[in-house]
Amino acid sequence: MKNNNRPISPHLQIYKPQITSILSISHRFTGIILYLSSFLISFWLFCTAFNNNLKIVLDNFLFSNLGKIILFFITFSFTYHFLNGLRHLCWDFGYGFNIKNVYLTGFIIIIITLTINIYIWFF
Amino acid sequence: MINFLKKFYSLGLNKDGLNHWIWQRISAFLMIFLFFWLFFSFQELSINLITDFNTWIKIPINLILFITLFIIVIHHSTLGMLNIFEDYIQSQKRKKKISIFLKTISFLIIFISIFSVWHIYSEII
Description:
A: 3 helical TM bundles of succinate and fumarate reductases; B: 3 helical TM bundles of succinate and fumarate reductases; 5 helices; elongated
């Protein structure tokens, strides 16, 4: 019998939170944020090319507090996704696969991401 | 060989999982270099991205690499989003519909961005 309502892997609601699973889910989540931010970039390019008034409005919005919060999420997502992506590529070449290294590189990525974003936004 | 080329030219957007995986890695690998180039390019010129973008994009090599980077970024994102749909959408019918919608949106983003950038490039200073 075919059951179409069975849970699909990775089943987020019941999966025990661990650094490995949290980082994996975060990688996807930041990927979604980056995909959505490409809409913003595309819209900004369009305004830059065709509508200077709209560009000024958009630039003012991006320099406002809400705009800065959005840009913060984008830079944070970008640095995290970029660094974790490098980690994934290392795994693809067969490096850093044992559990000790997986945890270690996970922590390193969190620290570097936070450092870069603190540097960008506060210095 | 023809079969392999067919798969390769599908850019990972068909149903073949291995091809999808390989293209996601190829695009990720290319993006590493292109993002480093973009970062150092802005650093070197010490320009404000928001105000001086028009001047920067008028340099042909910047235009070519920026468009290349943008296409690769959207391609990589689309593959990633398709991967998420593959994991979380149960109904095959709905999955197919959303995938087509996503590919259309991605194509439109690329088209609008390239069209806009090309317009800035071809503007008379």
